[in-house]
């Protein structure tokens, strides 16, 4: 058998090209495949307080971090972190948030090497000291606690008047 001539090859390629065009037109003009109704989207997650979703390991890590913070910063009596802080839900949420913000700041600062990143400076300014001020300046009542008398109060009843109407 002899090799096809260039003209025969061109003719064969043109025929193949026409077949391809016909197949492509069929695909592009075909009705969409029936897939049935789309599944419903998953329900949105319900927001929860950190304390309600934290594992025992998370809580231990927070306790250790707060202990290290208290020790490493040599907090004075103007900024006391009372040992009963875990019994104050608002304080727990504050400290968990500050701890979680500290993690990426410390990682970014470490990754920046000797020059640092400024992330820890921002963390101190934006997160730590405002949080400490709220905790230690009677926002949560922890300042009333004494070593022999814990003052955490938590109501199990609704505090909002759900029946008052706006004028």
Percentage of residues in DSSP E strands: under 5%
Secondary-structure content class: mainly alpha
Number of strands: 0
Number of helices: 5
Order of helices and strands: HHHHH
Question: How would you portray this structure in words?
Answer:
With 167 residues, this protein is an all-alpha fold. It has helices at 6-29, 50-53, 56-72, 89-111, 119-136. The model has no long low-confidence stretch (mean pLDDT 84).
List keywords for this structure.
5 helices; 167 residues; mainly alpha; single chain; 0% strand; 51% helix
Blueprint of the fold:
Layout: H1 6-29, H2 50-53, H3 56-72, H4 89-111, H5 119-136
Helix pairs in contact: 4-5
Short description:
The protein has 167 residues and is an all-alpha fold. It is built from five helices and no strands.
């Amino acid at each position: 058998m002899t090799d096809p001539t260039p003209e025969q090859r061109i003719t064969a390629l043109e025929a193949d090209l026409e077949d391809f065009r016909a197949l492509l037109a069929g695909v592009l003009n075909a009705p969409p495949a029936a897939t049935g109704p789309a599944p419903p989207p998953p329900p949105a997650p319900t927001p929860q307080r950190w304390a309600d979703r934290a594992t025992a390991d998370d809580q231990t890590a927070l306790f250790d971090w707060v202990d290290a913070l208290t020790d490493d910063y040599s907090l004075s009596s103007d900024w006391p972190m009372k040992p009963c802080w875990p019994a104050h839900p608002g304080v727990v949420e504050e400290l968990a948030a500050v701890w979680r913000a500290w993690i990426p700041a410390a990682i970014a600062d470490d990754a920046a090497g000797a020059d640092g990143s400024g992330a820890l400076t921002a963390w101190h300014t934006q997160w730590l000291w405002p949080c400490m001020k709220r905790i230690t300046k009677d926002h949560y009542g922890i300042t009333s606690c004494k070593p022999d008398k814990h003052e955490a109060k938590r109501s199990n009843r609704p505090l909002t008047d759900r029946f008052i109407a706006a004028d």
